[in-house]
């Protein structure tokens, strides 16, 4: 089971990928979502990051480097058990590797 906060962040990332008509959700989408979360912003800033600069660079990356699925083509992003399975696998891998946070 994932926390409400993580679920909200991942949901934001999926919506962003869909809005931009990208073919999948990537770590860049997750980072973009984190940059819209108060706790995420706090972490980035405490690490010396400039949130607005990171956002600007991500937006440029999305616009210039990432292809878009043409209009009229249906986008499909797994939800529910299918998506949770992938997250659970990643969490298990993280736990097996000795990391305490997923």
Description:
- With 102 residues, the protein is an all-alpha fold.
- It has a single domain, classed as Clp, N-terminal domain (Double Clp-N motif).
- It is built from 5 helices and no strands.
- Helix 1 crosses helix 2.
- The radius of gyration is 15 Å and the shape is flat.
- The C terminus is likely disordered.
Name the CATH class.
Answer: Mainly Alpha
> Approximately what portion of the residues adopt beta-strand conformation?
under 5%
Task: Work out the radius of gyration.
Answer: 15 Å
Biggest pleated-sheet summary = none
Please identify which CATH superfamily we are dealing with. Clp, N-terminal domain
Summarize model confidence as the mean pLDDT: 80
Tell me what the CATH architecture is. Orthogonal Bundle
The number of domains is 1
Shape: flat
Topology of this protein?
Blueprint: H1 4-19, H2 27-34, H3 38-46, H4 51-65, H5 81-96
Summarize the structure.
This protein is mostly helical. The chain is built from five helices and no strands. The radius of gyration is 15 Å and the shape is flat.
């Amino acid at each position: 089971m994932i926390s409400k906060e993580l679920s909200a962040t991942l949901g934001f990332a999926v919506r962003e990928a869909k809005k931009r008509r990208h073919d999948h959700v990537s770590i860049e989408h997750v980072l973009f979502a984190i940059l819209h979360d108060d706790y995420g912003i706090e972490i980035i800033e405490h690490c010396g990051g400039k949130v607005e600069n990171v956002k600007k660079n991500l937006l440029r990356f999305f616009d210039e480097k990432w292809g878009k699925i043409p209009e009229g083509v249906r986008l499909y992003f797994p939800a529910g058990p299918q998506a949770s399975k992938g997250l659970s696998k990643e969490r298990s891998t993280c736990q097996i590797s000795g990391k305490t946070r997923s």
